[in-house]
Design goal:
With 209 residues, this protein is α+β, with helices and mostly antiparallel strands. 22% of the residues lie in helices and 28% in strands. The protein is built from six helices and 13 strands. Strands 1, 4, 7, 8, 9, 10, 11 and 13 form an eight-stranded antiparallel sheet that branches. It has a three-stranded antiparallel sheet with strand order 6-5-12, with no helix packed on it.
């Protein structure tokens, strides 16, 4: 299985709210881009407590989710931008139910591993100027996810994310997100214990659970 990457995206810290900067806005990076253990060359994170680091090196927010958001928000101009949600990879045809925690994928010469879902925060609503987006993510599970980089390398637009090794536990990003943040049912302690024990789960999220 493979999924073409339309763009690799990065951004720099910019004024966001009052004195607080953010690098949530991402734009396509030209040419072949180095992929390091801390992410893409040419990308930064303003808040290194909640974003970035080895377990959150690359963020992917599926382009297909923009259709959902058009239904919620109308033709918001930011939805024309593949980096509107802070995604580092512009990919179609791939969603949270398709990948499990610990799945390994090749991108160019780099090897990536799915490490955790993305926890939604207020910055998404502030960027779009729309209240209720966090609740919509919690209800719908359209959260996106992070990769860690197991082998550094490089890639460019047009390369594909290619599955090379499937985790055998069956706990997808969608299932992991629902266990921790899902709002449709009370949290299931046994499900949380299963998630917490997963090989490949981001250590910060393991501690949070």
């Amino acid at each position: 299985m493979n999924w073409p990457v339309e763009a690799l995206l990065g951004g720099s810290a910019q004024p966001f709210r009052a004195e607080e900067p953010s690098a949530i806005a991402k734009a396509p990076l030209p040419g072949r881009v180095a992929i390091t253990s801390l992410g893409l060359a040419g990308d930064t994170q303003a808040d290194r407590v909640h974003h970035g680091g080895p377990d959150m090196a690359l963020h992917l927010y599926p382009l297909d989710h923009h259709t959902f958001w058009r239904e919620q928000l109308g033709e918001h101009p930011l939805l024309r931008d593949p980096g509107a949600f802070g995604s580092n990879l512009a990919v179609r045809g791939l969603a949270e139910a398709d990948l499990a925690i610990g799945d390994r994928l090749r991108l160019g010469t780099a090897l990536l591993e799915v490490s955790r879902p993305r926890q939604p925060c207020w910055k998404i609503e502030h960027r779009f100027g729309a209240k209720g987006m966090v609740k919509a993510i919690l209800r719908s599970g359209r959260c996106g996810w992070y990769f860690r980089v197991l082998e550094e390398g490089a890639a460019e637009a047009g390369d594909a994310l290619t599955m090379v090794e499937r985790a055998d536990h069956g706990i997808t990003v969608a299932r992991c997100f629902a266990a921790i943040w899902g709002t449709s049912a009370p949290r299931d302690p046994e499900e949380l214990r299963k998630v917490q024990k997963l090989d490949g789960l981001a250590e910060g999220l393991r501690a949070q659970i």
